[in-house]
Design goal:
By secondary structure, the chain is α/β, with parallel strands linked by helices. The protein has eleven helices and 14 strands. Strand 6, helix 6 and strand 7 form a beta-alpha-beta unit. The longest helix has 21 residues.
Length: 331
Amino acid sequence: MRYKNWLITGGAGFIGVNLIERILRIAPQANIRVLDNLSVGTEEDLRGVCKFRKVKSDEIKGGSVGVELMVGDIKDYGTAFAVSKGIDIVIHLAANTGVAPSVDDPRADMETNIIGTFNMLESAKQNGITKFIFASSGAPLGEVDPPIHEGKVPKPVSPYGASKLAGEGYCCAYFRTFGLKTVSLRFGNVYGPRSKHKSSVVAKFFKSALKGEPLEIYGDGNQTRDFIFIDDLVRAVLLAAASEVGGEVFQIATYKETTVNEIAEKIKDIVERRTGIIARIVYGQCRAGDVRRNYSDISKAEKMLGFKPLYDLEAGIEKTFDYFLNGTGKE
């Protein structure tokens, strides 16, 4: 573990708490500061993986001691600057996530994902931070023939894709102009334990099935995605953090194409097999901004970061189901 003082924005969210749990398991003496507005993740979620103390911006003089939580918003530069003091590395997870919210309110998406990311990059530069990991997505590429990879020209379909592309652009610029070692990771569709607040397809389907509600698919269900288990994604983040690379973009996924119908059937089968609950699959209207096919060529991440996913879809779905079944995944 190269760094001692970590700043994780959005650290109370699904990816954040899993990342914090892994960091503390590997390096119990690591200092971690979390910046989160608690719009999705909660203090209870963070408390599930660590003990922490809450701090205010005027209390921060240098690096954190243990785990600290500062409740605040990345859209405020003063907050971003204060929380970055004494930090060695930033893991920037905080974002307005998902295509649908960006279509409903493009301005809110832009303000969080572009202005917020700029604030964190500028704060990192001003505070002498040397490494910055940006959580991006496959959405910047838009509707292109898969597998998607870093060499394809981005043509975002949704405002979300556009805002993430802007974040990648600023990360590249801050590396090439200011020397901040930025790495943009285009996450696939991540799923796994501690995802009870997520509105993504796997979490949504499990929550619906266990409540006896139908699994609603938008469109015909033949749209494809690349589903990556949370443990694999966290490992990719840590590999990027440990690397010497800067100014690069990486696809972080599994290099496997899965339809939404296939995911729904897997979840329906495991719920019926292990609980006896009969799950129905229903179909609704297509959503604006959704791409038809999406899965990732991860060759660059394998070569430059040493990343290779360890979980196949069956194993990951089983572990995710265990989480939702034992009650911790219920809302």
